[in-house]
Amino acid sequence: MLPFERQQRIKALVQKHNSIKISELSKLLGVSEMTIHRDVKPFVEEGLVIKTFGGIAIPSQEKSLSLDTSACEMCHRPLDSRLSYKLIFHDQHTETFCCPHCGILRCHQTQEGDLLEALCRDFLTGTITSAAHATYVIDSTLDMQCCKPQVLCFEFQSHAEKFVRGFDGKICTYMQTKDYLLNHSGNTPSL
Predict the structure, then answer these.
(1) Model confidence over 96-149: pLDDT tens digits?
(2) Alpha carbon distance 191, 182 (integer Å)
């Protein structure tokens, strides 16, 4: 099968199912997962699909893929694109938060199985990354004037480590960050 034909088949499958795993596409089309990633890259760049954990999905019609909307769904604070955090649900509705603090607390409130993906923006590079695989810095001395305890997201642990050398803070995984917030913020955002 030619790459163009494969891309058309991928497009048809994701439109039919709304979301599909990369591994499933690989098996169905008889090519490697890396080939599937290359095939879907143009679709992601055009905004036709969004990357999810291990797969791709059709973006919500009601809201754009951008992490930026008007106000935080949790604390109603205006959004800062450097700190934005977004939840995408299986029914394709999205919720946007001012910072990882609010996003992680809201994620904790969701019913198991409702959430498709959690996305955050790398504090240094602005890259959108999977929240589950990000590295977090809690309570650095750089005050971003957002919810407390302050949480910053980094795509790479090495960047978080360098940041902490200059601005202190505690480096955590997603689960460690969630546990810390649940134990230190009373389960509601603190302004």
Answers:
(1) 999 999 999 999 998 878 898 999 999 998 889 999 999 999 999 999 989 999
(2) 16
Concatenated DSSP letters of the chain = --HHHHHHHHHHHHHHHSEEEHHHHHHHHTS-HHHHHHHHHHHHHHTSSEEETTEEEPPPSSS-SSS--SB-TTT-PBP-TTT-EEEEETTS-EEEESSHHHHHHHHHHSPTTTEEEEEEE-TTT--EEEGGG-EEEES-SS--SSSBS-EEEESSHHHHHHHHHHH--EEE-HHHHHHHHHHHSTTS-B-
Q: How far apart are CA 46 and CA 187, in angstroms?
A: 38
Choice between 66 and 39, residue whose per-residue pLDDT is larger = 39
- Domains belonging to the chain, first-starting first, are 3-57 (1.10.10), 85-184 (no CATH)
Q: Is-above-0.70 flag for pTM?
A: no
Can you tell me the distance from the alpha carbon of 166 to that of 169, in angstroms, rounded to the nearest whole number? 9
* Interacting residues of 163 by C-beta distance below 8 A, sequence separation 6+: 123, 124, 137, 140, 152, 154, 169
| Tokens found for residue 110 | 């969701």
Tens of pLDDT, residue by residue over 59-85, are 764 433 344 457 899 898 888 888 999
